[in-house]
Design goal:
homodimer, 200 residues, Tetracycline Repressor, domain 2, DNA-binding
Chain lengths: 200, 200
DNA sequence: GTCTATAGAAGGATAGAC
DNA sequence: GTCTATCCTTCTATAGAC
């Protein structure tokens, strides 16, 4: 069964917003890319571009967040899993000619000071990613506060490495960020005696 | 002596691009904000919006890069200086209601896949920041390669923390990033025996 | 160099036939 | 639910008087 018109609109919006940003993408362009009749966008999203934008942010954010369990379930050592996450991100960047980085970062920066509805949508996505990561770190024996700090740092360095890599066209920056982050995770785990670590 | 018309145009463009992004800012808005007659923009920047954008990126990048010597000259311990850099950035965010973060990151993401002229301008700015930071780390005894990796990581985690802080309206994320980065710098310095460190 | 007016294209959004 | 036509605004850019 093929995708519905609404799904195609959301997917086209996601691809264009990620690549060109929110302001840089027109509704007509989304309709052409979907493809879908122009009027159908307003049929499914009566709130217009903002409503579509919020939906795209939520859907893209949920999809990307699923990479966390995918990568961390596959590797018992969290420091290695952390490094693997960045290696995967770097490879995705290369395979997409530096387009496939964070699905919402460009929009997040564009709307942070200009569109409260969309800013809140991006904030909720970031919070969900931080929570998911912090949960992983907690399972490995880190206290809640420390786990959250590491999670914030990991999302931050990943996002920033995406900025550098896309601008400078060098995916190794993401891998370098991964090495530094993995070392930080390893160091945090060593802060506590081995006996106090929970086994997963 | 007051600012020239051209300077006012560049400054207005810098403020608006940082806040609203490149696509989200109109030439007329820049003229109104400067303030300057609309035609004057094209008098000083015959290449239009792209030429103005490239100039804004270069000027803003140079100005922000000057914070590196400012912060690192004031504190001999590089790990502490690193932390101080992030504390200063967090305070600037708070003082500006989360507008005054990286002057070029929003534009960098917007143009990375759509405007090669501006992408190159942002890449040159990032490269200059990385070089300046790596130089500081080298002065403290780190080998060139390691120094550059740390510099990339530091710019990355700062940029990403800006994204999170602006979206989530919480400047502490920048401070958390600073603590993690300062620890990474401290750990890197300890990798080598004390005797092999160069004194500045 | 300053400023106004306007061209020509593209933007978001709506109406209404089918 | 699909699709076209169109409204009105805004955009970048240019022309030309002063």
């Amino acid at each position: 069964m093929s995708a519905t018109t609404k799904q195609r609109i959301v997917e086209a919006g996601a691809a264009l917003f990620r690549r060109q940003g929110y302001s840089g993408t027109g509704m007509k362009q989304i309709a052409a890319e979907a493809p879908a009749p122009f009027g159908s966008i307003y049929h499914f999203f009566p709130g217009g571009k903002d409503e579509l934008g919020a939906e795209v942010i939520r859907i893209s954010g949920r999809a990307y967040g699923q990479l966390v369990p995918m990568v961390f379930d596959a590797e018992p050592d969290v420091a290695i899993a952390t490094r693997n996450f960045f290696i995967g991100a770097a490879n995705a960047l290369r395979a997409s000619e530096f387009e496939d980085a964070c699905p919402i970062a460009t929009v997040a920066l564009e709307v942070a000071s200009t569109n409260e509805l969309l800013r809140l949508a991006t904030a909720e996505v970031f919070e969900s990613w931080i929570k998911a990561l912090a949960e992983r770190f907690k399972r490995n024996g880190l206290p809640a506060r420390r786990a959250r700090e590491l999670a914030v740092a990991m999302i931050a360095i990943l996002e920033g490495a995406f900025v550098l890599s896309r601008a400078m066209r060098d995916a190794r920056h993401v891998e370098v960020a991964g090495e530094v982050m993995a070392a930080a995770v390893r160091a945090a785990l060593k802060e506590r005696p081995v006996g106090s670590r929970k086994v997963r």
